[in-house]
């Protein structure tokens, strides 16, 4: 069985890390897996970058910039990611077909990696893991609760458009025409929330759907002695530490840092609490929350991440829309409870009052209540034990890989 994992990046970003983890888990289970990416950061020989020649590398660098060109006319667009997927990608499809995989497993294909129309040129059956909503919207990766994908897009909220036949409608129609030409497309929704959304969408309603999580190596993301972890990060031993982090934690409104900021100011017992932020170095003009903040910077390797999760008392994920957060899964796997809003796929991982706290959506006061509850009121030892057991039981790479292999076999057996 030859599986080809296709993602724009190999280890840069949440979707890339999830795709790469699945790729490695398949290899460990004896599956002939290869990974094809537009931009490679690792030195893994099983990962092939499309950009081989110097010209191809230059084009790979330019693709994200070319991809964004149609958005320039929308001066009032929001910061939510929007991908037109219009840049020609015939070379990519030729490489995919030349590798002759039994199944092409798509993940995140933004930044100009694949044009919508070129998906229909892939010869093998397609499995598509949805890391966000883009596959069934008119271009936005998260719809900011507009819900237009259920009918058809247009007058796009993310674009700041009031025109029905805007770019989002054109992209929606391009997807409709392309998907109608693809018979063998199987949709993997990583969360129950995204499964429901994909099934009710106009574009993907008629496709095959299954809910499977991302895999995680629980032998790597595991509890580490907290005292030693804090020594490694030079964090205080006598404080309650609250962790927040993501790629570009301050620049993406969907990550909810503004809600966390409000929640921190609502906390009633903050004398012995300090905040830890990863994904960013200290800004020039850092905000004040009434207690000290530590900046861990950008973290590229999983070992460092595991030690940081183990060093803190609670992880807060205040996202406004969320599919299946790697950060939540990683934190729980390290035995660190998580607090977040009860939205999206958060409830797939966080069991309220069992391994964390699900706050009322977008209520900073209740988010603060959740942090206080974990730090001062809960049976903390039980929370940590439940957190670890949840991930080992449901998301361990050895468990999840077998489910993906069963899916591939089912597809290949008709």
Give me a quick take on this structure.
This protein is an alpha/beta fold and 414 residues long. The protein has 13 helices and 13 strands. It has helices at residues 14-28, 54-67, 90-98, 167-179, 192-200, 226-233, 257-266, 302-311, 326-333, 346-349, 364-377, 380-394, 397-412, and strands spanning 2-9, 32-39, 47-49, 103-106, 126-130, 185-189, 208-211, 240-245, 273-278, 293-297, 314-317, 338-341, 356-359.
Task: Determine Rg (CA atoms, Å).
Answer: 21 Å
Approximately how much helix is present in the residues?
25-40%
State the total count of DSSP E strands.
13
Number of DSSP helices? 13
CATH architecture of the largest domain: 3-Layer(aba) Sandwich
| Number of structural units classed as domains | 2
Kindly provide the name of the CATH class of the largest domain: Alpha Beta
N-to-C SSE string, H for helix and E for strand: EHEEHHEEHEHEHEHEEHEHEHEHHH
How would you state the average pLDDT, rounded? 93
Biggest beta sheet attributes: 7 strands, parallel
In CATH, the topology of the largest domain is named: Rossmann fold
Specify the structural class: alpha/beta
Q: Using the alpha-carbon principal axes, give the shape.
A: globular
By CATH's scheme, which homologous superfamily of the largest domain applies? Glycogen Phosphorylase B
Low-confidence stretches: none
Question: Order of strands side by side in the largest beta sheet?
Answer: 3-2-1-4-5-6-7
Distance between the termini: 14 Å
């Amino acid at each position: 069985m030859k599986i080809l994992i296709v993602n724009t990046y190999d280890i840069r970003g949440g979707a890339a890390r999830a795709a790469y983890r699945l790729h490695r888990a398949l290899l460990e289970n004896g599956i002939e897996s290869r990974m094809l990416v537009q931009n490679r950061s690792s030195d893994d020989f099983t990962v092939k970058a499309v950009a081989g020649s110097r010209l191809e590398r230059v084009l790979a660098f330019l693709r994200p910039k070319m991809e964004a060109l149609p958005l320039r006319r929308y001066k009032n667009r929001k910061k939510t990611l929007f991908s037109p997927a219009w840049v020609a990608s015939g070379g990519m499809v030729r490489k995919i077909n030349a590798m002759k995989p039994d199944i092409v497993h798509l993940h995140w294909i933004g930044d100009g990696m694949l044009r919508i129309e070129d998906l229909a040129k892939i010869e093998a059956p397609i499995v598509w893991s949805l890391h966000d909503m883009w596959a069934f919207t008119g271009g936005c990766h998260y719809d900011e609760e507009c819900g237009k994908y259920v009918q058809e897009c247009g007058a796009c909220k993310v674009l700041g458009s009031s025109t029905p036949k805007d770019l989002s409608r054109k992209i929606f129609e391009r997807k409709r025409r392309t998907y109608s030409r693809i018979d063998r497309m199987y949709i993997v929704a990583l969360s129950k929330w995204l499964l429901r959304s994909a099934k009710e969408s106009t574009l993907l309603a008629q496709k095959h759907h299954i809910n499977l999580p991302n895999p995680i190596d629980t032998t790597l993301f595991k509890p580490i002695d907290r005292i030693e972890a804090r020594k490694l990060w030079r964090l205080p031993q006598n404080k309650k530490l609250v962790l927040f982090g993501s790629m570009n934690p301050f620049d993406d409104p969907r990550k909810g840092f503004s809600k966390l900021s409000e929640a921190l100011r609502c906390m009633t017992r903050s004398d012995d609490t300090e905040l830890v932020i990863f994904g960013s170095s200290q800004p020039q003009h850092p905000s004040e929350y009434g207690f000290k903040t530590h900046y861990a910077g950008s973290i590229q390797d999983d070992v460092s991440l595991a030690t940081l999760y183990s060093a803190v008392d609670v992880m807060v994920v205040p996202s406004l829309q969320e599919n299946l957060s790697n950060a939540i899964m990683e934190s729980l796997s390290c035995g660190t409870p998580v607090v977040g809003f009860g939205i999206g796929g958060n409830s797939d991982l966080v069991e309220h009052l069992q391994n964390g706290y699900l706050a009322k959506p977008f209520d900073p006061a209740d988010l603060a209540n959740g942090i206080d509850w974990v730090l001062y009121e809960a049976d903390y030892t039980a929370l940590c034990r439940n957190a670890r057991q949840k991930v080992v039981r449901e998301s361990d790479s050895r468990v999840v890989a077998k489910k993906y292999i069963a899916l591939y076999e089912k597809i290949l057996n008709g």
